[in-house]
Amino acid sequence: MSLDVLTFGLNHHSAPVSVRERVSMSGELIRPALDGLRSAFGGSLKEATILSTCNRTEIYCAASPEIAEHVPRWLADFNTLETGLLKPHLYQYNKDQAVRHAFRVASGLDSMVLGETQILGQMKTAVRAASDAGAMGTLLNQLFQKTFSVAKEVRTQTAIGSESVSMAAAAVRLAQRVFGDISNTKVLFIGAGEMIELCSAHFAAQKPKSMVVANRTLERAESLACKFDGSTMKLADLPNRLAEFDIVISCTASSLPILGLGMVQKASKARRHTPMVMVDLAVPRDIESEVGLLNDIYLYTVDDLGRYVQQGNDSRQAAVVQAEAIIDGRVQNFMHWMQSRAVVPVIRDLNEGANQISVSELERARKMLAKGEDPEAVLEQFARSLTQKFLHAPMVALNRSQGAEREQLLSCLPKLFPVQKNEH
User: Fold this and answer.
1) How many Cβ atoms from other residues are within 10 Å of residue 216's Cβ?
2) CA distance 58 to 51
3) What are residue 278's phi and psi, to 5 degrees?
């Protein structure tokens, strides 16, 4: 069965956060998803990897092209969604376009923050998860090793990541739009993952009045808080303490909102309608979208920050052109490897067939010699018979062919069986 590289997914370009959060897969869901995917398509899908971040959910697979029309339904069913809701936002890439997409994603060309490096680590995590699940094979292993190599080459040889406005920096700037100088503000971070750590570093540089970390695991909250001389609080205390904070940054792995409309309304009233900036970097979202309708609450989602970041990307278009040129060349290299790999079974069968003929003729010659026949005559017979048997199939094919097929064979045979000139 012929296998192609196929990619299916949706990202911040194709779908709003309200759709992305419906198909986002947390770490513990990846293994069941990979098992379910392979079970659904059987032998038609040999290898698979799932990449799921706040900006994208993508399936990379080595599979028969026929499965392409059925994957959207599987993805919708797995996430308990109507296919019609998902399908308008899904993209699909095949063969060289799928390879190019993987290279662009890893290089930061498809990110909200052009040239950001976080996605490369997320892809490596996705590959490890697929490997642990037994879903990786030769084709995807080769694809992702090449992908990581290309990403390194792009970052080394271009200025794609220089002067990029990160999501964390964008959060600070949006808060400054509301408060101006934020040195008199109190900041609350909900969560203690990589994104919150980045945000805390950016906010700490502005020296706010206080910084507090609320997290489900108190140890991680304390570990992060000690980096900027901050303090911690329990998530359970949020309803009673939310009103204390001017800026709230949230990014957890919760499948349901942590901050609901009622809780924020109560906090806003307690603050006597003093403005509050809330930044929701989570997918699925941590803060109910209705919160953004409150008069004194400035709610920004990951998509809002992405639009802000995008404004700073235009100055790096020269680096993008360079990066795309590198990627184009590496895509050609990978496709050449795939094509040469497809020839391997044919060459193996050809060798096996030739070996069988050789073994058979050699055995025949040995029997003749054992009977005492003239060695010179045996050698001549061996060479003649071997030649005839090697040429039998192509000669029969040529004699039976007509028209265009005969023309094609006539042009190929001299290349496959070139005339050897004797040199003296």
Assistant:
1) 16
2) 5
3) -125, 125
Buried b (16+ CB within 10 A) or exposed e, 147-166: bbebbebbbeebbbbeebbb
Lowest mean pLDDT among 24-33, 102-111, 396-405, 412-421: 412-421
CA distances from 420 to 36, 344, 385 (A): 57, 26, 18
Q: DSSP 3-state helix, strand, coil percentages of the chain (rounded to 5)?
A: 60, 15, 25
The Cβ of residue 54 has, within 10 Å, a number of other Cβ atoms equal to 24
User: d(Cα 361, Cα 355) in Å, to the nearest integer?
Assistant: 10
* Other residues' Cβ atoms within 10 Å of the Cβ of residue 369: 14
Whole-number Å distance between alpha carbons of 144 and 121: 12
Task: Give the pLDDT band (50/70/90) at residue 315.
Answer: low
pLDDT digits (tens, 9 = 90+) for 22-51: 999 988 999 999 999 999 999 999 999 999
pLDDT digits (tens, 9 = 90+) for 125-156: 999 999 999 999 999 999 999 999 999 999 99
d(CA 252, CA 30): 17
pTM score, two decimals? 0.75
Q: Annotated active-site positions, please?
A: 54
Q: At what angle do helices 375-400 and 317-370 cross, to 10 degrees?
A: 130
How far is 48 from 141, CA to CA, in rounded Å? 10
Compute CA distances 171 → 221, 296, 299, 374, whole Å.
20, 18, 11, 93
Least confident of 206-220, 280-294, 344-358: 344-358
Structure tokens at 409: 């064979």
Q: Is 236 exposed, middle or buried (0-12, 13-18, 19+ CB in 10 A)?
A: exposed
Edge-to-edge strand list for the sheet holding 297-301: 231-233, 210-214, 186-190, 247-250, 276-280, 297-301
Neighbours of 144 (CB within 10 A): 21
